[in-house]
Amino acid sequence: MDESNLVKVVFRQEYEGDDEVDVECPWAEALGGNKYRLKNFPFYTYGISFDDVFEAEPAYDDERPYLTKVIEKSGHKTLRLQLPQSIQESPECRQILDDLNAMDCGYEGNGHRFFVINVQPHCDFDAVVGFINGCDLDWEYADPTYEQLFPNGE
Predict the structure, then answer these.
(1) Is the pTM of this model over 0.85?
(2) 3-class DSSP state of 90
(3) What are the chain's domains?
């Protein structure tokens, strides 16, 4: 990948019935024609994962491209988790990330307790979810979302 094609894009996550807005500015590969390929793990935005292709256009009197829609899924999936303690203070918490890495999942942290987990297309998604559930952690589905996986609220 040519790093000169990398640009900062804007993901704006609004929440229904709430004034709260999360904004993040990940790196993406410019593909031309308002199309981009995500090259970071999303911390706040739902429904998009690493290497997904999406459309983005300037908005809000801002020249930067804002995500408008996902065009092509890459097969990567995104989970987010909050560890009970800092990985710097807890060998057990550090081990959780090491075990996820051994399952071939990537991760990126925001601090030492909040992590985005990238489940690669070849990984056993159910096994990863089962492992995280077995660790009794606060976590969520980000892509696919819980609603997408369990449309009847199962």
Answers:
(1) yes
(2) coil
(3) 3-72 (no CATH), 77-149 (3.30.70)
